[in-house]
Amino acid sequence: MFKAVLLEKLESGFQASLKDVDEAGLPEGDVLVQVEHSTLNYKDGLAITNKSPVVRVWPMVAGVDGAGTVLESSHPAWKPGDRFVHNGWGVGETRWGCLAERARLMGDWLVPLPAAFSTLQAMAIGTAGYTAMLCVLALERHGVKAGDGEVLVTGATGGVGSVAVALLGQLGHRVTAATGKPGEADYLRALGAAGVIDRAELSAPGKPLQKERWAAVIDAVGSHTLVNALAQMRYGGVVAACGLAQGFDLPATVMPFILRSVTLAGVDSVMAPIAARREAWARLAVDLDSSKLAAITQVVPLSQAIAKAGDLMQGKVRGRIVVKI
What we know:
Helices cover 29% and strands 29% of the residues. The chain has helices spanning 42-49, 119-141, 159-170, 185-191, 200-203, 223-231, 255-259, 274-287, 293-296, 305-313; strands spanning 2-10, 13-21, 31-40, 60-61, 65-73, 83-87, 102-105, 111-112, 150-153, 174-179, 193-198, 214-219, 233-241, 263-266, 297-301, 320-324. α2 (119-141) crosses α3. The chain starts with a strand and ends with a strand.
């Protein structure tokens, strides 16, 4: 038996609870792991609070991310004692996840824990930070360089946004952070933002083309925020879009694309190939100032994960929540 955050659909309705779970219920897989730290991503918050149909199979152990130690392995690349990081792959949605003392995963999904990070630090990064790195890589593939101009980060006090601000600032970009929390301006500047704007400047419907401002954007918000960011892009600018905190709609026109040669690059972290994951984690180990992780992270025990998921969905959380298993 092991402890896990279990999501169930009962006759009385949805229930999220911390329970003792039988190891026999673990899904098939070639690697059995001990999870030392997990985290709460936006998708975890949706699943645990039942705000969106994230979970496809019931009952479900929550937890998109995990980091810890391999206990048993029939996979040639992994042996007992190896340290790993896991992100995505439908875990916590279609198969049991990592907000639990144990998990059975596929060896092909795991990335070796970089020597630069502890399991706590890896989960302070988590899917949110790894997604932020994928966004930075997308900007770089499209030719964005430090010194090209202002880079906007939306949803800046969230998990993706906080790490994106830290990464871009460390890489020498002039970062403008958009947030609905004006009291967090000092926090964002400490991470690396040169400027902070109110998200209200972007969140309402706007003109198809607006004054050119941004050389690049990392957007975790979607909807009108993404549309206005596109409308404010400088000629040849690039937007990396990875989230939908405001909404999944895109009420836009083709004007920025055909008149300003703007590129909209979609970024997915859940099913990203293993080569992209390894590149992202290798770059995080080099380009992320680990001293800033402490500023964006709060650590809670597994017993508080459900309550913290509620706080996350109510906008009461900044940065990252690490769950100590």
